[in-house]
Amino acid sequence: xxxxxxxxxxxxxxxxxxxxxxxxxxxxxxxxxxxxxxxxxxxxxxxxxxxxxxxxxxxxxxxxxxxxxxxxxxxxxxxxxxxxxxxxxxxxxxxxxxxxxxxxxxxxxxxxxxxxxxxxxxxxxxxxxxxxxxxxxxxxxxxxxxxxxxxxxxxxxxxxxxxxxxxxxxxxxxxxxxxxxxxxxxxxxxxxxxxxxxxxxxxxxxxxxxxxxxxxxxxxxxxxxxxxxxxxxxxxxxxxxxxxxxxxxxxxxxxxxxxxxxxxxxxxxxxxxxxxxxxxxxxxxxxxxxxxxxxxxxxxxxxxxxxxxxxxxxxxxxxxxxxxxxxxxxxxxxxxxxxxxxxxxxxxxxxxxxxxxxxxxxxxxxxxxxxxxxxxxxxxxxxxxxxxxxxxxxxxxxxxxxxxxxxxxxxxxxxxxxxxxxxxxxxx
Length: 428
Fold this sequence. Notes:
CATH topology of the largest domain: Aminopeptidase
CATH class of the largest domain: Alpha Beta
Radius of gyration: 22 Å
Largest sheet: 9 strands, mixed
Distance between the termini: 29 Å
Number of domains: 2
């Protein structure tokens, strides 16, 4: 596949996925088009050898899998990513009327870089639960798809120390500016009803919502030679897309699985997160015989796909001199002695061999020994399943900013590596 075509698909996916709910809906649509059948938790499953299926939980986490054919090895090649990204979530009682302006109170979700949220065109999206004209509770996906709000900075004339030292108070500095002279009668829920009706939904009243502001600026290729991809939510919609496209493209009789969890950015401890029961419950229904399930897990391998910190030219001293991955130099194996990443010598050797077979570049990241290391769903999933696991990601700048930067060559290279992993007969 040409790199430009792959990037166009990726950028469309990111634009269509302002929230985890939208990401899962977009992935479900692509899986359906590729011949995957949807399963429901409440139904009795009738899965067949060689069959392709997917299932969702809370509309924000998705598992897609291909069962091995009868003559194939009973193991699963698994890839995991996450659908959520740091953002500003709207509070339940959000309306703030102040000095003739209408604002909405927000709560910071995850470890967001807050300064880049100022002075940007923001839109609003998420899940809304309302009552339809028949009095039934209905869940709706909503995306305003237009600049709706902003958070203006304070002028430097009023804060002469802004460029020297300025911390952001999430409670007082981040209420989002929505409009002017809307008056005390303004209701966010009424605005949501109007927007839903404008989109063809018959809704009488909005009862509750899960809404997030997002950067309205579209993804773009930047640089003199378009060497970079700039976009919101690269962490970790990039990995979701690479895992999805690799799964759909894979030509193999083996068992394959992709899981994209919600709530990684806040610790994964939820029904939809990696610490929850979802993945194990799916595997138990696929392999109801306990003995067989344990045999499959023992023979399986899991790749946790999440972004890696590329060495920043302005801050090169923030990296270990010998483990500073560069953009456009291939995917990155992430290693940590304290198990913040789940990579070990066996899984690392396997991926290096796969990369060598396809002549794909590969890099390694280790955090400086005097700095704390972040983590992923990798160690959590490894602990939950007891499966061999490796942490892998694409080098990125500005991780957790409202707009992140990756190399434009790396997504397709990583897709190729993940596809090779899905198709590989390598034994570890």
